[in-house]
Design goal:
elongated, binds 2-acetamido-2-deoxy-beta-D-glucopyranose, alpha+beta, four-stranded antiparallel β-sheet, 163 residues
């Protein structure tokens, strides 16, 4: 009889630990960004930008004092050029960046000078309650710009002057 009376308590305990286990398995941060082919070699996205599937990126967190790599997680982009990297734990003392590693497109694999990375803030005490992070999109230069790029860039230039 005693064992029967214990059963509800055991059930509650199992449920409780189950819930705790699920909760602690949730990532602390979900990083989502995009890799594109800068078909106009413009340095920004245009109406003729293409998104790269299968591009490899790496999240790297380096200690801002020592420069030691504290964490590196690889990601790869889907059909729409989006990658998603999930991680547990915060990086209060690190500088974290998403870095372009490899493009699957031979015609679009040139890394523009000084723009192979986007920073991402992963400090838990940063006062941002949301766990989603959206680093700036990263673009590879296409080897030869599309013929339409002259017209495209003219338009962007004019838009800029309007503002
Ligand atoms: C992009 O913009 C340019 C300049 O306005 C235009 O000529 C071209 O047709 C556009 N292309 C697409 C795919 O929308």
């Amino acid at each position: 009889m005693a064992s029967l009376r214990i059963l509800p308590a055991v059930t509650v305990a199992v449920l409780f630990y189950g819930v705790v286990a699920v909760a602690t398995n949730a990532p602390d941060f979900v990083i989502q960004g995009r890799v594109y082919c800068d078909t106009c070699r413009a340095g920004f996205q245009t109406n003729v930008t293409e998104y790269i599937k299968g591009a490899k990126v790496r999240l790297e967190c380096k200690h801002f004092g020592t420069g030691a790599v504290e964490r590196a997680i690889d990601g790869v982009t889907d059909e729409s050029g989006f990658y998603t990297i999930k991680l547990k734990g915060g990086h209060e003392e690190d500088i974290c960046e998403v870095i372009l590693i490899e493009s699957p497109r031979k015609d679009c694999a040139e890394v523009p000078a000084h723009s192979d990375r986007a920073s991402v803030l992963l400090a838990k005490d940063a006062g941002i309650s949301d766990d989603m992070r959206f680093p700036n999109p990263l673009g590879y230069f296409k080897d030869v710009p599309l013929p339409v790029c002259g017209a495209v860039l003219k338009e962007y230039l004019l838009d800029d002057q309007d503002e």
